[in-house]
Every structure is written in structure tokens, then in C-alpha cells.
Amino acid sequence: MDRQFVAPEAPSLSAPNRWRGHSGRLRLPDGLPARLGYDAVGMPADIGRRVMKCLPRIGCVFADDQRWWWIVPSGSHIDVAWPSFTSYAVGAHMTDLSARSRLPRLVHHPQGDSPYTPPIPLYFMTCHIAGIRPHWSPGDATGPSQAV
What we know:
This protein has helices at 45-54, 119-130, and strands at 38-44, 61-63, 67-73, 87-89, 105-108, 132-133, 145-146. By secondary structure, the chain is α+β, with helices and mostly antiparallel strands.
């Protein structure tokens, strides 16, 4: 399996050298080419920890005390209704930095040479853990329905 945890839990805000990145964009570690470009899917830390335990292949994951950010190929939001509790950062540009002055730090470095978590398994696992039915359709932006 492709699991190498740098930190088992989200880092403390008081931890030294905890942030990576610049100009509000999550920065991938050297040596991990993002040939497909990259975006990030953010989710609450408690869900992020559960997703981490369940996925068979995991790319770069960044975290702070509140959210975990999964690196996915650019365009992984097209025709996909990510759950409402997630955030989608095109180009991995963080837009909600007003509440915090620094970027999340890398908590998972993949063993291979790809920075990506496969977006479809990430989507299905996120929906499953949250108890909502996965839903997407070309041109449909209505979002997921609640599971019954």
C-alpha cells in the first residue's frame, strides 16, 4: 500500500515550521511533478482522518487544525457534486486565509512520484463517511442528496 504518514494527526497551530507554500497556494514537495496540474479538496479534520484510513492510494495531503486538503488533478470538480462540507480550491489556491495567516502543512507524502489522490475514490469515500449518496451528472450542479 502507498501509505507513508508524516504526522498521524492534524498539526498544532503552535508547532514550529508547520507551514508550506507561498502566495496562498499549497506547494507540492520537490520531486513530485504535477503533470495534470493540481487542485485541492478540503474537508473537516475528523472526516479527513477517517478518509486517510480507508483509501488504498493517497497522494499529498495538507492539514491544519480544522481542515485536511487532498491534492487531486486539475478539474476534479467538473460535473462532480462534492459534498457541501468540502471546499474545492482550484489550483490549490487557498481563498479563506483571512482566519489564518499561514497555509496548512504537509502531513502525508506519497511513496511514488505522483502527488495525486485519485479523485473518484476520494469522492466516494468522502460521501460514504458523511452518509450522503454520491451524485454527479454532466451539467448538473444541484449537489448530492441526503442518504436514506
